[in-house]
Write a structure and sequence with these properties.
By secondary structure, the protein is an alpha+beta fold. 21% of the residues lie in helices and 18% in strands.
Length: 176
Amino acid sequence: PVDPIYSSQKLPAAAMWFEAILLFLLSLQFLEVSTLSCVNCADVDCVKPKKCVYGYVYDSCHCCLQCGQGPGERCGGVWNMYGSCGKKLTCLKKPSNNNALMQQNYPGICAQKDEVESILSAIYQDQTFSVKEKMGKLEMKPRRLKSKASPWKDTNYPVKPSSEKSEAKNMLIYFK
């Protein structure tokens, strides 16, 4: 008989399928999945919070009202675990050229919608950002630096933080 290791014979089709399925199952171990399991809202006893300064927002499962986060408070995160911003506020997340779907899961800081561009430019000197509203949320992406060239081709990097604005100072810790 011929030793199968050194044989030039091909594997039977069933063995090839077995190897393909085994390889697929092994690759599933390296996937990261995050899920949210919500109960039926009819089964939840919601207690409406009293006197919310920044208005009411829904919880992660959209069953119960809770107080909206105020300026400078944390927001967003995976399944919105840090809460939603209140009226006339947006969840300002660290600008990134990374995958937009991944950026949705990042935590942020609540800020006034009309102050987003000035806050970002105060934090990152000489860097500008494109700010667009998409599906009710602000999307911020860094533009290429004009005054300083990036040492890495086709990438942006934040430059030295500024200490010009008081609200920006409070957010520097988050953006470092």
